[in-house]
Amino acid sequence: MSDKLSQKIVLFVLVLVMGGLVFAEQLVLDERPSGSVKWKVRSEDPEGHYRPAEGSVSGVNPPNFIWRIQDGLVWEVECSRDKSFNEIAYRAKDVEYNVHCPPRVFEPGKYSWRYRGKNASGDYTNWSQIRTFTIAEDAAEMPMPPRKELLSRIPKAHPRLFVRPENMDHLRELAKGHLKSNYDELVEKCEELLADPPPTDEPPTYPEGMQNMSEEWRKIWWGNRTYTIKALNSAATLAFTHLLGGQEKYGLEARRILMECAKWDPKGSTGYRYNDEAGMPYNYYFSRTYTFVNDLLSEKDKRICRKVMKIRGDEMYAHLYPRHLWRPYASHSNRAWHFLGEIGVAFIGEVEGADDWVWFAMNVFYNVYPVWSDNDGGWHEGMSYWSSYQSRFTWWADIMREALGVSADDKAYYSKAGYFPMYLMPPGKVGGGFGDGAARRTSSGVVPLMTVLSAQAGNGHWQWWVEQNGGPKPIEGYIGFVRGALPNVEAIPPDNLAKSRVFRGIGQAALNTNLTDASESVQVLFKSSPFGTQSHNNAANNSFLLWAYGQRLLIRSGHYDSYGSAHHAGWVWSTRSVNNITVNGIGQKKRSGDALGEIVSFKTTPAMDIVVGEAGKSYENDILDRFTRAIIFVKPELVVVYDRLEAKEPATYEYWLHAIEKIEIDGQHRIRVQSEDVVCDVDFLVPGGLGLTQTDQYDPKPRDRIKMLEWHLTAKTQEKRESIEFITLYRPHRVSEELPDEAELEQIDGGYFLKVKLSDGQFTALLPSDDEAGLEAYGLESEGKIKGWLKKGDKPVEILEVD
User: Fold this and answer.
1) I need a surface site. Which of 105, 430, 490, 540 has the fewest CB within 10 A?
2) How many angstroms separate the CA atoms of 576 and 131, rounded?
3) Band of pLDDT at residue 330, cut at 50, 70 and 90
4) Neighbours of 33 (CB within 10 A)
5) How far apart are CA 474 and CA 512, in angstroms?
6) Residue that is last in its domain, among 448, 467, 492
């Protein structure tokens, strides 16, 4: 081999090696979807939490951009009116987080967007895939101010939380005027605290060997929370009242409690990661006390407080950032982020990193919060957790408004949030629908939150609802005092509103006969959710509840004795616990975002409603190809539930119903559920030959402290079939009322013809079993759609048709 040839080979090899090194070092963008079943997002966003998703319509202007986290990179985001990117409509460089809300609004219309990362050496990744979206003409305008501008709005002096220093004189005048009674209550509370101050010894840690989630464990876990709140919220109350009235004795006692609590180990029994139920309130009540009593703290006191909150704030930030910006569905984290923001506002400019805490919290608010919601005002986790979490969020809304000049009500969700309790809980109702802790929730129990929401949003319908439930119930204490300065809202009756409503993004529909008085109303609640069965709304898709004239009739059963307990996980999360259907004894995926449901149709009229859900993808082992449940509500006396199931192989089917009292059974056509003076007569028209059983036992049982029993009926098919239809009639009424029980069902080509006699008329329907078939019977026709006719006397009242 010649030297020249050898040199060429060596050079060629070097080129290959160097080229390989360059290729190996080339930055590659990680564009995987979110990927976690537990935190999987809605079915219309199969690629994960990327926003705006391909083909989506943004209801906010500018849109929120969200992409996968990738360590060691800053980001560049581009927007164009087409996919060529020859003309850039918007560009942002050196974006710190994997989320971005532009500081200006866009022109409505169609856009494409992409992003790329850059490392510390200035090297870029490849551009991401291009996603196209549309900004709606009526999108809510909510640009996010740049970091420097936004943070500069926070007062340099104290107080900073809920009030600004320059507004204190106005509040002091109000304390002498129309808020004097509120102020007097604060003074009375402070005198009580001086006479009987809260204990400030550090609460205990869990003893070695204690079983996690046991009853003994719960006493310490929750007990440390209440102990911490009593101590530090008392200090905040004393400090705020001192600010208003100048009583030094209140301020000095607040300072004493604050400094005693500052001695607690930041990572001990009240540490955020050790027990977040104690750690979160420690952090925000400590911060409130610090900013309210700041004028009485020595420099040494301040240094101690800042050291404590540096440790505690950093611990929260390390837990939340950056993961919460990509997977924002963790339940506790969905309040922790704004508590971190509250700490940051109190300590910005005084604790290193506090500015990052505030900026992070504001990026969560603008880009990813709220998450368990839709723009219709719905909340996936249910009424109890909606009330709990949103009550706490309203604190942050108050703080944002005062300290940062940002209004939460500019968000589409918060402009509709109050309609959720209005439709699920008409005045006087007991039972908040689906979700942990919701079964015995009362409408009056939600009044404090609705009082705040109606005042903050200025919504007359919500104010009317508040007044119908006994009137406003302001939060007590210093927060209630501050909110007393909000303007009054004129109540507007819901006369112009439809009685029924769908919250499509959370897959729930509330079908009502009356929005003004629950004792005169019949209600059907239905769930088929793209959020699945995860978090605190773990009910199976295509479940329904029936409530009539002040009584719970067909219920969600079981008890929220403790999250993840044997009973909670084994029964409450099970399809067996709700009014639903299991297949070969198998139910839907438990606590999973992969149990996908969807409301595919919804129509409402004054006389009839219909909602259709699809939940075939929800079941374990993918045993079903289809589970379509249609509910036709002929107001107020008839509910028709039409189920179509298609299994991958022949199976038996178990139809579950649940009630508070023992169910009367006289064959499958004569079943009666009763609660006090209200009953519901149930008739399984098809299939025939159902085996009926009933029990008052749970499997597994709740903890011993739970004594209440409920009754569970199972109607089981006797032979295996690949496909089946259930058609079931429910007739709710008062015991004193007599309703006809006549119903005819005829199988016709492509489906069924149903005729039901009503107290003052007749309901007929064509129910297809074949989506492509044309149905015809007795002069009525439908092309593969559910179609219902309602007559009062000889006059047609409504015709309703859905796919």
Assistant:
1) 490
2) 41
3) confident
4) 14
5) 28
6) 492
Whichever domain contains 639, its CATH number is 2.70.98.70
- The answer for 36, left when phi > 0, alpha when psi is -120 to 50, beta otherwise, is beta
Are residues 710 and 771 located together in one domain of the fold? no
Domain presence at residue 52? no
Buried b (16+ CB within 10 A) or exposed e, 191-215: eebeeebbebebbebbeeeeeeeee
Please count the other Cβ atoms lying within 10 Å of the Cβ belonging to residue 796. 11
Least confident stretch, 32-46, 152-166, 299-313, 705-719: 32-46
pTM of the model: 0.90
446 phi and psi angles, rounded to 5 deg: -95, -5
Dig out the tokens for 677 from the structure: 């003076």
Helix axis angle for 333-347 and 299-320, nearest 10°, is: 150
Q: Which residues pair with 694 in a beta bridge?
A: 713
Same domain for 478 and 510?
no
Residue corresponding to tokens 């009322």? 737
- The number of distinct structural domains making up the chain is 5
End position of a domain, from candidates 492, 510, 544: 492
Q: Residue 300 corresponds to which amino acid?
A: K
What does the CA dihedral 695, 701, 702, 708 come to, rounded to 10 degrees? 30
Full domain range(s) for residue 656: 498-737
Which pLDDT belongs to residue 49?
81
Is residue 326 domain-resident?
Answer: no
Structure-token match 């299994």, residue found? 647
Query: Are 374 and 460 in a shared domain?
Result: yes
Q: Which residues contact 701 (CB under 8 A, 6 or more apart)?
A: 567
Which of 90, 42, 178 has its CA nearest to residue 529?
42
Q: How far apart are CA 82 and CA 443, in angstroms?
A: 49
Residues of the chain above pLDDT 90, percent: 89
Distances in Å between the alpha carbon of 741 and those of 546, 598, 669, 683, 738? 19, 33, 10, 9, 9
CA-to-CA distance for 762 and 756, rounded, in angstroms? 6
| Residues 712, 785 within the same domain | no
Same domain? For 619 and 708 the reply is yes
Residue 548 inside a domain? The answer is yes
Cβ–Cβ < 8 Å for 650, 723: no
Do 532 and 418 fall within a single domain? Answer: no
Q: Is residue 312 part of a domain?
A: no
Cα dist from 594 to 249, 446, 703, whole Å: 57, 31, 29
Q: Are 515 and 497 in contact (CB under 8 A)?
A: yes
Distances (CA, A) of 297 to 54, 72, 183, 252, 348: 54, 40, 24, 9, 17
Distance of alpha carbon 769 from alpha carbon 766, whole angstroms: 10
- Report the distance separating Cα 442 and Cα 494, nearest Å: 20
Distance CA 526, CA 503 (A): 10
756 forms beta bridges with 743, 763
Q: Which residues of 609-634 are buried (b: 16+ CB within 10 A; e: fewer)?
A: bbbbbbbbbbbbeebbeebbbbbbbb
Supply 578's token pair. Answer: 């709700």
11 has a pLDDT exceeding 60: no
Amino acid at residue number 328: P
pLDDT averaged over every residue in the chain? 93
- Specify the pairing of strand 57-61 against strand 131-141: parallel
Mean of pLDDT values over 138-146:
95
The CATH number of the domain holding residue 63 is 2.60.40.10
Kindly report the backbone phi and psi dihedral angles of residue 765, in degrees, each rounded to the nearest multiple of 5, phi listed first.
-155, 150
Tokens representing residue 513 in the block: 């006969």
Asked whether the beta carbons of 70 and 117 are under 8 A apart, the reply is yes
Q: Between helices 333-347 and 354-367, what is the axis angle to 10°?
A: 140
Residues 504 and 487 in one domain: no
Distance CA 714, CA 581 (A): 9
How many whole angstroms separate alpha carbon 570 and alpha carbon 579?
Answer: 16
* Residue 486 pLDDT level (bands cut at 50, 70, 90): confident
> Three-state secondary structure along 586-624?
ECECCCCCCCCCEEEEEEECCCEEEEEEECHHHEHHHCE
